[in-house]
């Protein structure tokens, strides 16, 4: 799950696993796999970074267990 | 700024002029005798037909205020609406170019210079970051309310077109009853019968000369306005989805008839990027 800001400054948490595409036109539009589109204030790169951080956090637990 | 609707004005005036000419013109002697008009003027008949029609409409209406408003809607027929399909689509494409270059928030400034309230409302909703489904439902609700109001007005003239002939018939019945009550002199049958039939004539003229044309004019105008607002809704949602202006143009052009489409292609306004 990643925390992002919608156009009207509302913070929402999006399921990162449902992201299909992220476009900058020039506003960032996140299209989910269910066809829903979310307009967000973060740039495309920022969203990508958030997803990466989230996944890292998620999977780092498995490394510790080894 | 209202432009007179030439078609309506020519239609209404020439309709009544030709009818009167038909009454006064005599083919046999190729002469015009205005005295014949007096055959068609009868005060009691006018009271029964027009009085009856308009007062029953008053009974049907929710309030006197709406009755007066709907009667006043007649002037819409004499006007030409200021909007234009091609202009609207060009506006939307210009907006999509702005959104594409500077982002959706830049539309706010552009929105202030737009006159069309419906388009303005839609843009402000988008700028506020409203969800697309919500934008669509808000605009479509407004659309259906507009359509409802229009069909109320159309219904008013439709009812009047039914009431005219009905009260004309009532007037004719009154005339016949009075005529048959004192039928001592058979020579009066003709003149009395003529007076009795004049009410039916008034009713038919009211329906066919005024009401039915008004109903159809308002229907056509309603259809054009609703179509244009649907174009606006589609365009706004496409802008919000970040579609390419060129794609939006192609999408909206399908609403236009071939003539307007050709007019549109002559002076292309869309830019391609992305």
TrEMBL record, chain A:
Protein name: Flagellar FlbD family protein
Organism: Anaerocolumna cellulosilytica
A Pfam family recorded for this sequence: FlbD
Keyword terms, alphabetized: Cell projection, Cilium, Flagellum
PANTHER family: SWARMING MOTILITY PROTEIN SWRD (PTHR39185)
Record-linked InterPro entries: SwrD-like (IPR009384)
């Amino acid at each position: 799950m990643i925390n992002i800001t919608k156009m009207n400054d509302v913070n929402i948490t999006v399921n990162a696993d449902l992201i299909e595409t992220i476009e900058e036109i020039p506003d960032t539009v996140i299209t989910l796999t269910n066809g829903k589109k979310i307009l967000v204030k973060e740039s495309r790169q920022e969203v990508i970074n958030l997803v990466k951080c989230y996944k890292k956090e998620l999977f780092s637990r498995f490394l510790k267990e080894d | 700024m209202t432009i007179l609707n030439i078609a309506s004005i020519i239609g209404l005036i020439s309709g009544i002029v030709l009818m009167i000419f038909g009454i006064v013109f005599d083919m046999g002697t190729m002469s015009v005798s205005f005295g014949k008009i007096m055959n068609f003027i009868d005060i009691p008949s006018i009271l029964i037909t027009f009085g009856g029609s308009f007062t029953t409409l008053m009974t049907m209406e929710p309030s006197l205020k709406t009755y007066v408003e709907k009667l006043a809607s007649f002037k819409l027929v004499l006007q030409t609406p200021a909007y234009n399909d091609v202009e609207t689509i060009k506006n939307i494409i210009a907006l999509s170019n702005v959104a594409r270059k500077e982002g959706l928030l830049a539309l706010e400034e552009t929105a202030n210079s737009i006159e069309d309230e419906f388009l303005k409302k839609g843009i402000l909703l988008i700028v506020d970051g409203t969800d697309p489904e919500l934008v669509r439902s808000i605009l479509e609700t407004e659309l259906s309310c507009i359509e409802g109001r229009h069909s109320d007005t159309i219904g008013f003239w439709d009812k009047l077109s039914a009431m005219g002939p009905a009260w004309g018939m009532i007037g004719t019945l009154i005339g016949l009853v009075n005529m048959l009550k004192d039928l001592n002199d058979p020579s009066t049958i003709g003149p009395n019968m003529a007076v009795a039939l004049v009410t039916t004539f008034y009713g038919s003229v009211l329906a066919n000369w005024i009401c039915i044309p008004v109903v159809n004019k308002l229907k056509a105008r309603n259809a054009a306005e609703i179509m244009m607002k649907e174009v606006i809704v589609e365009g706004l949602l496409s802008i919000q989805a970040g579609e390419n202006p060129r794609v939006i143009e192609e999408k909206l052009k399908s609403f236009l008839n071939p003539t307007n489409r050709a007019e549109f292609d002559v002076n292309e306004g869309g830019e391609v990027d992305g």
